[in-house]
Design goal:
Blueprint (H helix, E strand, L loop, with lengths): L25 H55 L16 E3 L31 E4 L35 E7 L11 E4 L4 E4 L10 E13 L10 E7 L5 E8 L1 E12 L14 E3 L14 E13 L19 E7 L10 E3 L14 E9 L6
Parallel strand pairs: 1-5, 12-13
Antiparallel strand pairs: 2-3, 3-6, 4-5, 4-6, 6-7, 7-8, 9-10, 9-11, 11-14
């Protein structure tokens, strides 16, 4: 019997129906897209906000760093004020400092070099006022100020300021350079324990004298910087190696400077012991610090307040606050013009400025008080 093998397999019925596969519905897809867009929007908004916050903090940090640099530049001069080498000032208005190779009377008219006198009578050698300021306008003292004084509209030659902010204060410091012994400065200070002379030629000094360079630095605020017209800057005038007044920029972005002097008041410096302790703070034009003998006070500290402004205008940013610092107080009113002498003691409110863009800059105020090392005690 012949057998056959079939390749046919029996069909088994399981009793279940075959189901086809389907994707998400249109409604489900729209819901998923909407949720995704919400998440992307949230992440983007968080990133943008974080970026804005970072930029804001970075801008403020840069302004503060600029302020620290500006104050650091002033610090060296302020701490050295009234330093005359080996000679120690015995009181705040008389000394035995003399000017040789120049008119010997230190209270009389002096010259800078070759007969030039750009900054007013005796400006370079007014050592009676080793620390000197003005509260907007001209210097308040008899020598080195007045109608032909430093930065006044009537100044001439190299002493003319570079578009000065008129209502901003100025600070002038005179001293021997504590860091220079063999110096190339045009003027030198030859000092002993009992005398100090400002000379052109150090060979006239005694062999036992200490020789230092003589420095005069006058700081002011300009409406322009070397890099950009309209960008304010801190600048200074100084005596260069040729004995002439020269101008240089310290740092841009400084919009205003206010100076206050911490003073120790006494009725008579000669007979009243001094302690070198501040009894009150006054503006630079206070009559009590004019130091005409007998002096009413000595300057013990200098408080410097700087208003710094960002370099970049931010149209989406607005700051309408009134800034108070130094002698600028809101109790005196507010002003939108830092250049107005009539408003020199008013708080600065950028929103009231005639420049509609003034309120769209970031600003910070930095303040530091420097104690004078060379005071009478």
């Amino acid at each position: 019997m012949k057998s056959t093998i079939s390749n046919n397999r029996p069909i088994v019925h399981t009793g279940t129906k075959h189901r086809s596969q389907h994707g998400v519905s249109l409604i489900e897809l729209m819901i998923a897209i909407t949720i995704g867009l919400v998440l992307v929007y949230g992440a983007t908004a968080l990133y943008v906000k974080s970026k804005v916050t970072y930029n804001d903090n970075d801008m403020i940090a840069r302004l503060q760093e600029s302020g620290r640099y500006a104050l650091g530049s002033l610090e060296h001069d302020v701490l050295a004020a009234n330093y005359w080498g080996q000679f120690a000032i015995q009181n705040s208005y008389t000394s035995v400092i003399t000017v040789t190779s120049q008119p010997p009377d230190i209270g009389g008219p002096g010259i800078i070099a070759s007969g030039t006198d750009d900054c007013g009578p005796n400006f370079a050698f007014d050592v009676r006022h080793s620390i000197q300021g003005d509260n907007g306008g001209t210097l308040p003292f008899q020598y080195g100020g007045g109608a032909t004084g430093f930065l006044n509209a009537n100044s001439s030659g190299n002493c003319v300021a570079k578009n000065q902010v008129a209502a901003s204060d100025t600070l002038t410091l005179r001293h021997a350079d504590p860091n220079s012994a063999a110096t190339t400065d045009y003027f030198k200070v030859c000092s002993s324990v009992s005398t100090a002379d400002i000379v052109k030629d150090a060979t006239s000094c005694s062999p036992s004298d200490q020789v230092n360079g003589y420095q005069v630095h006058s700081y002011y605020i300009s409406q322009d910087s070397d890099r950009n017209t309209g960008l304010p800057s801190l600048r200074r005038k100084y005596l260069n190696s040729a004995g002439n007044v020269q101008d240089e920029e310290i740092i841009s972005g400084v919009e205003d400077m206010q100076i206050q002097f911490g003073i120790e008041v006494t009725s008579n410096v000669k007979n009243t012991p001094l302690t070198g302790v501040v009894t009150q703070y006054v503006d630079p034009d206070a009559k009590v610090i004019e130091q005409t003998a007998p002096a009413a006070a000595q300057i013990v500290s200098v408080r410097v307040s700087l208003l710094l402004r960002g370099e970049t205008l931010e149209s989406s940013f607005e700051d309408s606050r009134a800034w108070e610092y130094g002698s600028r107080n809101q109790s005196n009113g507010t002003t939108g013009d830092l250049n107005s002498l009539a408003d020199a003691n008013k708080a600065y409110a950028p929103a009231s400025s005639s420049d509609s863009n003034a309120k769209h800059y970031r600003r910070v105020v930095v303040t530091r008080t420097f104690m004078i090392r060379n005071v009478v005690k």
